Amino acid sequence: MRLTVRRTVAETGERVDGGDSASTVRARLLRAIHLWHFVFLSRLFALGIIFYHSSADVLAAMAGSAVLLPVALALDGLLCVVSWLEKRGKGRGPLSRHRWFPMTAWAIIAAGTVFYTQFVFAVSASNAYVASFDHIAAARIGIVLVGAAVAGLSRPAFFVFAFATAVGGALGTWSMEFGGQSLLFLCLLAAMVSEDSRYHRRQDNLRQAQVDDQERALNLVREFETAGRGWFWETDRHGNLVYVSQVVADKVGMERRALIGRAFTDIIRKRGGGGESEERTLGFSLSSRTPFNDLTVQAAVKGEERWWSISGNPISNSLGHFLGFRGSGTDLTEMKRSEREINQLARYDTLTGLANRLHINELLERALRNHFGQPQPCAMFLMDLDRFKAVNDTLGHPVGDQLLQQVAGRIRQVVGDRGQVGRLGGDEFQVVIPQITAHDKLAEIANAIIISLAKPFGIEGEQVRIGCSVGIALSEGDGVPSSALVRNADLALYSAKDAGRGVYRFYIDAMHNHASERKAIEDALRDAIAKDQLKLLYQPVVDVASEMITGFEALIRWYHPTEGLISPTKFIPIAEEANLIVPIGDWIIRTACETVATFGPQYQMAVNVSPRQFTNPNLPSTIVNAVAAAGIRPEQLELEITEGVFLDESAENMEMFQKLKRTGIRLALDDFGTGYSALGYLKKAPFDKIKIDQSFVRGAADRGGMNAAIISSIVSLAGALNMHTTAEGVETHDELDLIRSLGCSHVQGYIYGKPMTAQDAIALLKSNGGRVEAQGYKSARETRKRTFRTVSVDHGGFRYEAIVRNVASGGAMVEGLWNVPVGTRFRIEFAPNMIVEGVSRWAMDNRMGVKFDHAMDIELLASVTPAFVGGAPLKMAS
Fold first, then answer.
1. Among 731, 771, 777, 724, which Cα is nearest to 751's?
2. What mean pLDDT comes out for the span 87-108?
3. pLDDT digits (tens, 9 = 90+) for 396-411
């Protein structure tokens, strides 16, 4: 700081004297000059007193000392004129602008003072002075005091005046003693003034330091406010503002002066409901005179949402009296917006704006319990879009995103204020509907959603059609946890999909049992893979013309140690969902290759490949390794692929076909006509064979049916594409004759053999050189259900106990009655409330075939509780 001051003085040409800057000394000298007319008047008044009270002798004695008195009067008069001119110029006269003027003026003052003092002290030295001592002493003291008072405005001027007075007194009295004593007093005066100057310099330095600190603090505060990092406020003891930063006035749109005197709480917005808590907290703190920190309030800014964080502390005087509050504030608006954006990202789906998984689960928790924590009724929808993956794959993900946005809008429109809609991810949506559990109302909402989403969507000039399946779960206010409700809705959704999609299903307990059974099967299936409980059976594929076996199809079977044989239709879908189908499929390929190697090089082995296994990029390498390990030719392995793989017509799918074909294996299109039902892929995929599904074969020989025409069309199509055909599920001679007449190249079915073990297949191949004979019924028989149950048979008033072995919708095989004539009528009681009438069609020993008068439900006949025979003893036929 000192270096800075010195540099400033050096640069401006000013110097420090007596603790004041040169400019300050100059100003004080000029001020003393401007007041010198008072000294002039006092001197004139003193001269008048002296002349009036002095006798002629005294005046004669003063004549020698008054020689220079006119000069002194002239000098004082000149200074008075200058003073008058400077006063008219308000201190900016022409003389005061010159640097030499103050020094010249004070030189004149010094000279005049010497002359006046010399004259006055000369009078005091006269012998005649004694007579007028009081008057002359008063005049002398008066002019000294007035002159000292004016010269005292500036220390340099005062020293000049004191020195001039001492010199004048010494000359007037012509006394060395007076001069020496005056010099002594001047030295004492100089020492006193020097000490006083040092004191004042120290005080000035302290004051300057305080001013600098205050100025620095003020600059920091101004910079803090200008930068927008915060603002300050102060109130009186009544809570009214006495100071507030300009930035606050700018924000609230008022003049800063208009805010002073108003209550601090007036600039805080009062919001409805619980939002008034901030304003009440501020008012309470101000009235209770308690400090507060980081209180979040909303500012009363029109047309804008602005948030402040304010802190304040009470202030008191030295006596402890409360004066008001003083504090600071910061703007939280941007932070609030950032928090809102972060909350939006954390709790809402960025694509659709719906609640995300986290938030919708929170809403579900709130809907299940009121604010007292007690359970309350609630319903939940779980929805899955149908055919959405096809939209993504064919039209691209941008179109899929727009579709999801439109779907969200339609669901929101249907649900309205009755519930909250959320997106769980992908094409899964969830709806929470509190306080509604009536099935009819929920069914109405679910059906409206399904109908709304079934309508076409217009996206980028394309019409997109999808569907929706809905699962509904309820909590009747019985305290069902949210996790259980979600699980129940998921099970209901799964049931809706199984029902054919585009429908809704309410959760029932049987769904949970079914899910538990599926879970148990999945766990057991994993264990079965580890324990080698899965086996392969082989069904022969026969050339229709020569009846020679050309190969086999490998069919998987699961032999459970306690449950026995578990059907593939039961565990294969579970393996698909549990992602177990890939390791199972790889095992089937390796085992089938090893088995066909034992049959001979002229035979082929067909293996089914699931859509999930087809998309596995490791499938080609698995096939190549299995073929190489078994030592067979690649064309001995035939992969049967269902039409489901063509739902994904991506480049990767087509590339997989080419990779498989390059391995040298054969490809067969399985279950043709039952799935995708489009012919375009036949020219893209390099198939070698088309397999006609058994649903077309069964009943093909019936007159009036359309199956024969469908089979003929498929055979013609395959011939045109240079492909073989295999008819599956052939069981009767009528079906075989029809297939042969239609030109189908191969047959697979019970008529040539059921699935068998590898050892039985080898034996079959060796028995007749690979040739087989068709064995089976002439025509198709109705489906029968094996059973073993006791029934009551009524004939001619007699009741007999018998056993039903097989049952069909049109009849049953009854055992226990001997030598029954054909045509005998019976009433068979399966249960007390289920009696069927019929007639015997054939009889052999204790068995007979009974034809029912009316067709019956097989499942119902097989599942009713057995009848209990009461009353008279039953008579058995002899």
1. 731
2. 65
3. 888 889 999 999 999 9
Query: Which amino acid, 476?
Result: E
Dist CA 581 CA 573 (whole Å) = 9
Strands 746-748 and 811-815, by their bridges, are unpaired
SS (H, E, C) 325-352: EEEEEEECHHHHHHHHHHHHHHHECCCC
The helix/strand/coil state of 808 is coil
Dist. CA 759–CA 762, nearest whole Å: 5
Q: How many CA atoms lie within 13 A of 720 on its CB side?
A: 9
> In the prediction, which pLDDT does 18 show?
46
Q: Beta partners for 45?
A: none
756: DSSP letter: B
Is the separation of the CB atoms in 493 and 471 below 8 Å?
yes
Can you state the angle between helices 22-34 and 36-53, rounded to 10 degrees? 40
The Cα 33–Cα 25 span in angstroms is 12
Q: How many angstroms from the chain centroid is the CA of residue 371? A: 26
Q: What DSSP string runs through 398-441?
A: HHHHHHHHHHHHHHHHHHGGG-EEEEEETTEEEEEEET---HHH
In which region does residue 579 sit, left (phi positive, over 0), alpha (psi from -120 to 50) or beta (all else)?
Answer: left
- Please give the residue that has the higher pLDDT: either 202 or 197: 202
Q: Roughly how many angstroms between the first and final C-alpha of the chain, as a whole number?
A: 138
**706 CB contacts (<8 Å, ≥6 apart)?**
none
What confidence tier does 867 reach under pLDDT thresholds 50, 70, 90?
Answer: very low
Query: 846 is written with which tokens?
Result: 């204790």
Average confidence (pLDDT) over 440-466? 90
Question: Between 480 and 197, whose confidence is greater?
Answer: 480
pLDDT level of residue 380 (50, 70, 90 thresholds): very high
Q: In this structure, are residues 434 and 475 in contact, taking their beta carbons and an 8 Å threshold?
A: no
Mean local confidence (pLDDT), 30-55: 74
Instruction: Give the integer Cα–Cα distance in Å for 172 and 50.
Output: 15
Name all contacts of 72-78 with Cβ < 8 Å and 24+ positions apart: 72/43, 72/111, 72/112, 72/115, 72/116, 72/119, 73/44, 75/108, 75/109, 75/111, 75/112, 76/36, 76/39, 76/40, 76/43, 76/112, 77/40, 78/108
> Measuring CA to CA, which residue among 552, 609, 598 is closest to residue 753?
552
- The Cα 617–Cα 650 span in angstroms is 14
At how many degrees (to 10) do helices 155-173 and 22-34 cross?
Answer: 50
Tens-place pLDDT, residues 704-754: 668 888 888 889 988 888 899 999 988 888 888 888 999 999 999 999 999
pLDDT-wise least confident of 104-108, 118-122, 814-818 = 118-122
The torsion of the CA quartet 138, 142, 143, 146, rounded to 10 degrees, works out to 180
Torsion, Cα 608 609 610 615, to 10 degrees, reads -170
Instruction: For residue 426, give both structure tokens.
Output: 């992908």
Average pLDDT, the chain: 80
Q: Do the beta carbons of residue 50 and residue 120 sit within 8 Å?
A: yes
Q: Using one digit for the tens of pLDDT, what is the confidence trace for 498-536?
A: 777 788 999 887 777 777 777 888 888 888 888 888 999
What's the pLDDT at 261? Answer: 87
Three-state DSSP class for 706? coil
Classify burial at 68, counting beta carbons within 10 Å of its beta carbon; exposed 0-12, middle 13-18, buried 19 or more: middle
What is the SS3 assignment for 854?
Answer: coil
Distance, in Å, from the CA atom of 486 to the CA atom of 130, rounded to the nearest integer, reads 126
Token pair 């012919």 is found at 679
Conformational region of residue 564, where left means phi above 0, alpha means psi within -120 to 50, and beta covers everything else: left
What is the pTM for the complete model shown?
0.49
Q: In sequence order, what are the beta bridge partners of 309?
A: 296, 330
DSSP designation for 801: E
Which residue in the block uniquely carries the two structure tokens 């149950």?
Answer: 789
- What tokens does 543 get? 């050339």
Q: Is the pLDDT assigned to residue 377 strictly greater than 80?
A: yes
